[in-house]
């Protein structure tokens, strides 16, 4: 009860999407919209985006297959985290069926291709199937909040993975199934898969940015920050909650279809807690509710594992300890570090000077 | 002002495009050219192993065997004058890291061959990539046979071990068998074994076929169901912990017939399964891919000497003997290649082993042949029995009927 | 049939006890602790090592329980307390990070081979009519589970327990009436760690535990806690026992392959039909 009161107070004091702090008492360590931008800097953002995109486009021309693969995997996880973050960060619902919906994408695409549907078409199709499933999973959201929702969605996610195991004729059961890799003619499979991943990632980020920085994102945050008081907003709050579920499921499955292309062999045990945990880590590290956090989070999680290679037996401990340390020091995620620096007194003074000049 | 970085970027990308198109354009992998990982005085091989995570025990054993073999070979001058450079990556027993690691080995560490990689469920995710690069995969640990040009299996697969065990039970006059399996690759292998071998023993009947949830320590359901059907022998296709638990539960309820598990689940030669099972392990029968059990085999004794000196975990385990043998067999094969180390010659020479097998003494003779079935190079498995507190050979290496 | 019920009650006792540990921490500290089974595992391994080194059985048991409680307090003070103002997500993630780290530490110190904690009665069985034998360790698990449930219920009726409920209901009001929330959350974590140690120790006495076993145990613990709506002790206890028995019957009469799915179905149904748990206990918080 007191928590809710705090939330309300916080939400009243600082209009959503407007202030950097003040929302800490809300269900999620809230972040601001990084693009509180005026016209000039939004052009700059666009140019930076194009340069980043071009640099990413160049990767397969200059790097070996291993690096291309790691970057592909990072992009796939970034897309997946984009969806997870939409749910956990922007709408404030800890739904834990994300790994399972990711699996629905991977399996849906692989099965679709086996039945003669072109691969590129299976990307949106698998997404739609997962969105519908996510809606079903999200229905408990009407009655459940917080950890209860987490447990319920976790159970449903596990049930989906169990179903994939049982659907032996379609999925090969617990033994797994191999995935037909789609490839552009004339270039290597690794590069081809990479370009598909890059294109899809670019589209998803572009669309999500438009949606989240607009009215949709603001409303989501409002629904999140007002918590139970959205009763007065009525049905529409509920609708936004469910839309967040469906959209995040869609994105998870889109990422899943690409993941299948990278792995080339999938089995249900891949999509259990062992995948959900890194996914949560990515959301957290990137900062729940931030726009570019998912890329940072995915890169961190993937690259960290590659660096820990050299630690041998100790790397499992190192992973857990680094995570615990990160949460203790930066409960708002890695990207909150940048914001903290930005909000520090020193930076504030700098900014004031700029204004004065 | 705003446009300039944009054009610079475009120009840079175009330049890179022009300079490095070869990286992206697909070239059909032909085995004729000089393979990677070979210099005048060095040959690089690599593996991905579960050094951490839930399969760390086996991963450390597998690593030990490889290191022991490489040290021994290098001390004797390497393979044909080339010292072996061994790259081992950890995959933590997760499938996507197995896939990532194999790509790193091939395209960054530039290995000549992937030798004895583990990860029976992750490895199939690398077959397509391996096919594009032509890199030989010599002796992967227990995946199903992909029947692929580059991949050579050197151990009796789980299915083969299961078939040998079924033959053995049939010989003992057993007619009612029961199975407890996990719903993963272990279960798939057991099903293969049953499908192939039961028709050959028409008098034998599968009276119970139970599935044990992966990772669950709750075995009493499966055990009670099996006992209700009164089998004379039980075959297990589960991990070590489950095998140990099921052994305990079956014996606690008075079951006296033979119980079988493959080398992985039974921990043949070592304590990983029979230790936790305690008294219930008496009479337990396990598959044997490498002869880690007998004490009068000179080849095995030679390995055991070296393993005792090994500075690390699990040096004397069956896994260690297995990968030790695989690396030794790899060295032997490379010697037979002579000066032509091309992948074409590698495959050709390996497929000719059927006429002139590699005989190591520690594992059954390696006799690879041409595809489709020839790359399953070892088709016999032994059986070991745990009795009186130690492992003994119950049946020498035998091919299934 | 009887064997099925006893086996179900035995594993049900473990689920119920772990569920109780989860609920106690949830009640007082508002943390869903995914590391609960791992905490019990560390404590149990300490006990196993002591027993193997020749320490008498009952002293090893005592050491296990104390270790569990101490781990709980340490986790609360060092990690959890400072995060509570940042909302649910960092707390949830912290317990997951803790799970990974504790599991890895156990693997590094004790290895990944399964182990047991032999009790004087391990392996002994009581013959009942009709050729049915019931293991003494099964009976011990069931009885300890019962005692645990009664003891915890009694604990929540003491003054400290009442304060704990007050804190759970309303933190700021509790502070006004002079209750130290910090002390209470430390007590709750100690109690939680203690029960977790009991649970895993019982499991190690009649079956085997390893770095693999906590993963499935914790899920069943959460299922039990869900059945009690995360607040009702009675609901959690009965729910855990029921879950164990249901699983055994599903395995025996339908298929052992769907046992896990049935547990998940139970969670879903309970949450959809009765979010407050299937026994209407004291609803402490408006969640």
From TrEMBL, chain A:
It is a multi-pass membrane protein. The chain crosses the membrane at residues 46-63, 69-88, 95-113, 119-139, 146-167, 187-208, 242-259, 292-311, 317-338. It is found in: Cell membrane. InterPro entries: ABC_transp_permease, LivM-like. Its main location: membrane. Keywords: Cell membrane, Membrane, Transmembrane, Transmembrane helix. This is Amino acid/amide ABC transporter membrane protein 2, HAAT family. It comes from Pseudonocardia thermophila.
UniProtKB/TrEMBL annotation, chain B:
It comes from the Bacteria. Transmembrane segments: none annotated. The keyword Transport applies. Residues 1-20 form the signal peptide. Pfam families: Peripla_BP_6. Residues 42-354 form the Leucine-binding protein domain. Coiled coil: none annotated. Keywords: Amino-acid transport, Signal, Transport. SUPFAM superfamilies: Periplasmic binding protein-like I (SSF53822). InterPro entries: Leu-bd (IPR028081), Leu_Ile_Val-bd (IPR000709), Peripla_BP_I (IPR028082). One of its GO terms (biological process) is amino acid transport. Belongs to the leucine-binding protein family. This is Amino acid/amide ABC transporter substrate-binding protein, HAAT family. It comes from Pseudonocardia thermophila.
Automatic annotation (TrEMBL), chain C:
It is a multi-pass membrane protein. InterPro entries: ABC_transp_permease, BCAA_transport_permease. It holds the Pfam family BPD_transp_2. GO terms for cellular component: plasma membrane. GO terms for molecular function: transmembrane transporter activity. The chain crosses the membrane at residues 12-29, 34-52, 91-112, 132-156, 176-197, 217-243, 250-273. One of its GO terms (biological process) is amino acid transport. Keywords: Amino-acid transport, Cell membrane, Membrane, Transmembrane, Transmembrane helix, Transport. It is found in: Cell membrane. Belongs to the binding-protein-dependent transport system permease family. LivHM subfamily. This is Amino acid/amide ABC transporter membrane protein 1, HAAT family.
